[in-house]
Structure formats: C-alpha cells, structure tokens
Specification:
- The complex is a heterodimer of chains A (176) and B (370).
- Chain A is 22% helix and 37% strand.
- By secondary structure, chain A is of the alpha+beta class.
- In chain A, the strands form two sheets. A five-stranded mixed β-sheet of chain A has the order 2-9-8-4-5, with no helix packed on it. A four-stranded antiparallel β-sheet of chain A has the order 1-3-7-6, with no helix packed on it.
- The longest helix of chain A is centred in the last third of the chain and has 25 residues.
- In chain B, 74% of the residues lie in helices and 0% in strands.
- Chain B is built from 16 helices and no strands.
- In chain B, helix 2 runs antiparallel to helix 5, helix 6 crosses helix 8 and helix 8 packs antiparallel against helix 9.
- Classes of the chains: A alpha+beta (176), B mainly alpha (370).
C-alpha cells in the first residue's frame, strides 16, 4: 500500500473517533440560577464551570417559542463565562445551551434554564446597560490568547540543549 | 480511536518503566531478561506521539465551526492538554538522548535518572486528566500517584513476563518484587480510591456517597468500564498473591513454563485492565448521570441486562435474588478451581477458570440491580 494512502487511512481513523461527543464537566453555578425565575430583562448571563474553559464552541438561549438568541459577545475568565445579550432577553422561559472544551480536552454539552417574569407592567430592568459596558458589535470578544508565545519555546529548547550538554559532561567525567 | 492510542500509551509507559527498572536491579536478583534498547527507544518516541492523539481529537471537534490552523495553535499553546504535551515532548527528548547516547544497562545511575524522567512524564498524563481538571491539585496528585504505581508494578511484571529467557534467581527476584508489588498495590488502590471519589462526584446530589455513585454509574458506560476494570483486578491480585508468596519454585527450573506462564496470564489481565481504562477515559464521567442518560443514553451493556425501561433519574439499588447467589457461588467455585489447577500445574485450566469467573460474578451483580 503506497505510503501516502497509509497516511490518509491513519489520519481518517484518528479523526473518525471524534464522533464520540461527551460531556465531561458541569455547571457549578449560574446567574440567573438554574430553574429560577427573575423579574427583569436579562443582559448578562454568567456561568461558572467546574473546570477551566479552554474554548467556547457554542452558546445559545432558546425561548419557549423555539427562537434562538445568541449572545452579542462573551468573555472567559478561567472557569467563568460571561455572555452579553443584545438586545436584552425579554419575558419568557429560556434554555441556555453551552458547548465548550474543558481542561481535560473533552467536549462538554450542558444546559440550564430560567424564566423571566416581569413583576409588574412597569418593566424596569435592573441591568441597565451603561455605555461603557456594551462591547463593540464584533462577535468575538473572548480573551485573545491564541497567539503563540515564542518565549517559552525558546526557553524549552535552551533547557534541553543545556541539559544534554550537562549529561554528556557528566558521563565523560564518570568514564574517567 | 483515542482509546486505542491511550491503551498503547499505557503499554509504552509500562514497558519503558519496567525495562529501566530491570536494568537497574543487580543481575543476581532477577532472571535473565533481555530488554532490547531499541524497544525502550521506541517507547520513548511513542509516548509523545500517542499523547498527541487527544489533541488532534480536539482539533477535529473544534473544526466544525472554525478553521484548523487557529484551533491547532490555540490548543498547542494555551490549552492545558497542549502545555502538558510540550512538557512530555521535552522530557521524552531528554530521555531519548540519554538512552541513545549511553548504555543504561551498564550504568544504573543514569538508568535511575531515566526512571525519574518517566515519572515526570506520568505526571504530565495526570495533569491532563479529568481529575486534575476539576480540582486544585489533589486530583492531579492522586491520579498521578495511581498511574505511577501502575506503571512501576505492571512494567516490571510485563518485562519479566515477556522478555525473560530463564528462571534464574527467581527467589531473589521475588524477594524484592513481591514486597514492591504489595506497596504498589496499596498505592494503586488508595490513590485509585481518591481519584474515584473525585471522578464519581455527583453534581445532581452533592451528598451522594461514593458507593451510591459507584452503583448509579453502572447505568452509563463509564461505570460499566470501571466495574469491569475492578473485577479484572481480582484475578490479577489472586495470581499475584500466588506467584509472589505461595508458590514454591524449584531453583534449577530451566523450562520457562511454570510459573512464567502464570506471570504471563497475570500480565494479560493487566492488559485488559488497560483496555477498560482507555475506554473509560473517553466516556462521560458520572457527575450528572441523569443528564448523561438523557443526552447520550444509558450503557448498552446495562440496557441489555436490565429488564425494564431505564429512566434518567433512577437509582441503582442492589437486591440479590437466588440467581445472583447461585452465580456468586459459581464464581467462587471457578476461583477455587483456578487455584486448584495452578496447584496441579495445569496453567491453561487456571486461565480458563479465571476467565469464566469474571462474567459469572459480573452477571451475579448485574442481575441484582433494581
């Protein structure tokens, strides 16, 4: 079997395994709380997981009519996800579904729900967005740490080189 | 597929550690074991290569929405599993240089350094694991300790089982290996228990005990694999005890048959335990069993054995009937027959009975589930 065909076969085998979706972490707490009822429109949804969030794949808030709202922007702080919805989420019951990658590298699909029931018709929102809080219209506001840092790599190579030199040196002395 | 690479990863670790330890101990305290240097070099290269598979898996999972290269870079440089992998690469490179340049078989000081390197790589595996991802440091510590114990003990076991050329110095060998096995077994069991405590923690009922969660987890793949892994440990312990403490071997025994075949059988069971562990590691842990059953469905094995429909918020209660007790009795009979056949030096029979013992006990337990 020609070499490149073997390569393709191996690579495709490796990739097909990814069909095993698995939920490996869970929501420790959320704002609004799971199964709670809040009385004002929601701009910010905060979720804390039991593991560091490596990457958010998908967030959506589905209401009882089946309409899907996606957050305007979101940010990650270690284990906490903060998602901002603009326009605000109105009255209704919502299922927030989140798909992410946790610290052990496994895909997590999890969800929680809450309902928004205004206390009175006067509908005062407790989360009046201040101008400084509204992020720019761009979608991706996650912490941009995807740029490779070359510093550690150079340190690593230097360490290996130094260690190798030390080893050679030590063995030379011992064999005397 | 990651299950396969994980399985091979565990085997590589074991052979590497076992080979190095065999080189370290004086020749008078072990049989004549030929560990090819090429094999250890191969394992040293395989470890970072195989450890890369989970990373590729993440690239694939992410690539549905975004482009490969961005994901690849972020996984390699910002994800925990990426950082652990770089560490593994660095250490394995050092070990490779060490192994390649020097004759570690003659230089036990350097071989010990090699062992330290392997331990560090074991730590990297622990750091990238699930228990480490949900605790501050405890999960990392106990998972790593568990794996170190496994690597050391199973490594020596496998190396001796498959690379020995004779049975010289068997008694001297057991003089250090038997106690080492006991110590390792204690570490494995204790650290394993604490790892389990973390991995079985329920988020649906924070007060659920480890035993409750252990039982409930049988409804999903993770729990089934864990149970099977533990059941497999019983014959391993049995053979270990017999090999280590109870069997008398003639010093001048030149034929490799007995007790070497028993050691090989023991190592075979360990390989199956590796397989169960590799499978388990890719399944959803039982933190939210009800949710897991709803989203992913129950374990097919459990579903096949359980008579009624499975509701997500069910709890597993054990209620052993006559059938279960009969099966337990039968499994004990098999165990006894296994010991008997070992005593009579009918090794194949012992293998047969130990294999029969497993599903019998398993069925006995499963039939008692309500």
């Amino acid at each position: 079997m020609p070499k490149h065909k073997i390569m393709i076969l191996v690579m495709s085998l490796l990739f097909t395994s990814a069909a095993y979706a698995s939920a490996h972490s869970a929501i420790l707490s959320s704002t609004p709380k799971d199964d709670s009822v809040v009385s004002s429109r929601i701009e910010t949804v905060k979720v804390t997981f039991n593991t560091k969030i490596e990457k958010i794949i998908k967030i959506s808030a589905k209401n009882e009519a089946g309409e899907i709202n996606e957050p305007d922007s979101f940010s990650i702080d270690n284990k906490t996800l903060t998602a901002r919805f603009s326009p605000l989420l109105e009255k209704g019951s919502y299922l927030v579904q989140i798909t992410l990658i946790g610290a052990d590298g496994h895909k997590i699909e999890t969800a929680f729900s809450f309902a928004i029931e205004p206390a009175n018709d006067d509908y005062v929102s407790a989360n009046q967005p201040s101008q400084s809080q509204i992020s720019s219209p761009s979608i991706q506001a996650e912490v941009d740490n995807s740029r490779p840092k070359s510093g550690p790599i150079l340190w690593g190579i230097a360490t290996i080189a130094v260690a190798a030199l030390i080893l050679v040196f030590v063995s030379r002395r011992r064999s005397k | 597929m990651v299950m396969v690479t994980e399985f091979l990863l565990y085997v590589s670790f074991a052979l590497l550690m076992g080979g190095l330890i065999i080189w370290i101990v004086p020749e008078g305290t072990r049989p004549r074991v030929i560990v090819p240097k090429k094999l250890l070099l191969c394992c040293t290269v395989l470890i970072p290569v195989l450890s890369f598979a989970p990373l590729l898996n993440v690239v694939y999972v992410l690539s549905e929405d975004m482009d490969y290269w961005v994901n690849f870079r972020s996984i390699l440089f910002t994800f925990e599993i990426g950082k652990s992998w770089w560490f593994t690469v660095a250490i394995s490179a050092l070990l490779f240089i060490l192994l390649y340049t020097f004759d570690l078989q003659k230089n036990s000081y350097l071989a010990k350094i090699g062992v330290v390197f392997v331990v560090f790589m074991v730590f990297a595996v622990g750091k990238a694991g699930h228990a480490a991802s949900i605790t501050q440091w405890f999960g990392f510590a106990v998972h790593s300790a568990h794996f170190v114990g496994v690597t050391i003990w199973s490594g020596v076991l496998m190396t001796v089982a498959w690379f020995s050329k004779d049975l010289q110095n068997w008694t001297s060998f057991l003089k250090w290996f038997a106690p080492l096995s006991v110590v390792c077994a204690l570490i494995i069991i204790t650290a394993g228990y604490f790892t389990m405590e973390i991995d079985l923690q329920s988020y649906e009922d924070f007060n659920a005990s480890v035993w409750t969660q252990y039982k409930n987890s049988w409804m999903i793949n993770y729990g089934q694999a864990l149970l099977i892994k533990h059941l497999l440990y019983i014959p391993v312990l049995l053979f270990g005890l017999l090999n280590g403490f109870l069997l008398k071997v003639r010093q001048d025994a030149n034929s490799l048959n007995f007790p070497m075949s028993l050691i090989r059988i023991e190592s075979g069971f360990v390989l199956f335990m590796f397989g169960a562990t590799a499978f388990m590691g890719q399944q959803t842990p039982p933190h939210q069993i009800a949710q897991t059953i709803q989203i992913l469905g129950p374990s097919p094995l459990f579903d096949a054995l359980y008579s009624s429909r499975i509701q997500p918020d069910m709890a597993v209660i054990l209620n052993f009937q006559v059938m279960s007790f009969l099966l337990f009795l039968l499994s004990l009979l098999f165990l006894g027959l296994c010991v008997l056949s070992i005593w009579k030096k009918r090794q194949l029979l012992s293998l047969l009975f130990s294999i029969l013992f497993l599903p019998t006990l398993y069925l006995g337990i499963m039939l008692g589930v309500n």
